[in-house]
Amino acid sequence: xxxxxxxxxxxxxxxxxxxxxxxxxxxxxxxxxxxxxxxxxxxxxxxxxxxxxxxxxxxxxxxxxxxxxxxxxxxxxxxxxxxxxxxxxxxxxxxxxxxxxxxxxxxxxxxxxxxxxxxxxxxxxxxxxxxxxxxxxxxxxxxxxxxxxxxxxxxxxxxxxxxxxxxxxxxxxxxxxxxxxxxxxxxxxxxxxxxxxxxxxxxxxxxxxxxxxxxxxxxxxxxxxxxxxxxxxxxxxxxxxxxxxxxxxxxxxxxxxxxxxxxxxxxxxxxxxxxxxxxxxxxxxxxxxxxxxxxxxxxxxxxxxxxxxxxxxxxxxxxxxxxxxxxxxxxxxxxxxxxxxxxxxxxxxxxxxxxxxxxxxxxxxxxxxxxxxxxxxxxxxxxxxxxxxxxxxxxxxxxxxxxxxxxxxxxxxxxxxxxxxxxxxxxxxxxxxxxxxxxxxxxxxxxxxxxxxxxxxxxxxxxxxxxxxxxxxxxxxxxxxxxxxxxxxxxxxxxxxxxxxxxxxxxxxxxxxxxxxxxxxxx
Length: 523
Prior knowledge:
Blueprint: H1 2-32, H2 37-45, H3 50-59, H4 71-98, H5 113-127, H6 129-161, E1 166-171, H7 176-187, E2 193-195, H8 203-213, E3 220-224, H9 232-240, E4 244-247, H10 255-258, H11 261-268, H12 270-273, E5 280-284, H13 288-291, E6 301-306, E7 312-313, E8 315-320, E9 323-328, E10 331-335, H14 340-355, H15 360-368, E11 378-382, E12 385-390, H16 396-408, E13 414-418, H17 428-442, E14 445-448, H18 454-470, E15 489-490, H19 495-505, E16 511-515
Parallel strand pairs: 1-3, 1-4, 2-3, 4-5, 5-6, 6-7, 12-16, 13-14, 13-16, 14-15
Antiparallel strand pairs: 8-9, 9-10, 11-12
């Protein structure tokens, strides 16, 4: 009997430990999927299997994006624990009654009946942990909707009370965060500016920014607007009512939820459609997804900016180890930032700043002081070699520009470390193949991290190498441009393997590009 009691206690301790870990794991993933059950189920059917959660528990794998314990998470956790406890008690009671261990309705310590009932019930509950989380979410949904509506209405009242506030919306498949930060720096030369922090680019993120940070002295409010499905940007616009908008890019991002590039185009231009007749929009003429869109609204002033196209253009662009320079309206602008995408983002900020009366001299001063945005073509030194950190870039167009920077960067050998792209739906394999093909002419060493896109990237790289080895037609031959060789292709499973391998291979003067970093939901 004593052994049975000790076994029961041990089972309870192990079960509770695993339950807490699984709950935090599932909550973290649910949060990364914006608390949307359909996305969570899609992940569960793909890489989010039970074994990965168990392995995560056993190895204590650190999270790239840790769980943010918000009030909503606390409520969800409390409901999940309560439901699990009720089901646990009901399960153990039911199994004991079925086994005949209880005829009086009182749980007895009858040999191994209780340990077996506890073990079986805990196993079932752990296997159904994700279902329980979604059940808890469904139970909390009416309350969460009421709380969100109250916060939303409170934020709307605060914005309405701030009648002279200039609201600027910034969206794009990529580049919106950098554009937002550059615009903030330039406008701060003349205005008191509030900007949505970090990745607060959802409706609730904007609501939180307004309620916690908006003050009477703010003159400009810059709002980053993200979207994963049609209507997301329109929802934010209905809250903040922007008078100025920037569409930084349109590309094949989140194709799994959008379904098509056309839907992405329509969604990004929800911002421009929401502007008033006297509003102002700046759109990136260099972005193929914008250039090909034929339904650009014309009810307000629309300016097209770019390095190669558009009316508001950067001329005489030049790059060096110190950064970039370009001419804008007869004024030479200099910045420590690298890459065409950064120049485009600066141009967007300058177009809006010009509209709001910021002088070219003030713009020049601010541009010279712009700081690199971490994880977005962020250049740094790591010992004797150079690192270009573009880990937050997860789209094909931006990756192509980053590879151009790597190719043209002065230094020794060029390393590319990438897992490829995700959430591109049926286009994912082809875009990853293109990435591998271009990498062959820009990198001397290729490291493909993770297994998600390995075959597609390898096929592209090998295709380029095969073409180079089979053609010998003079100066136009790929043999003169392809740098990659088969022995310099490595396929580590995760970043924990990458860094020791890199330490063995890298030499002083080499340049290493980190391109994209898959979130926890794809590990």
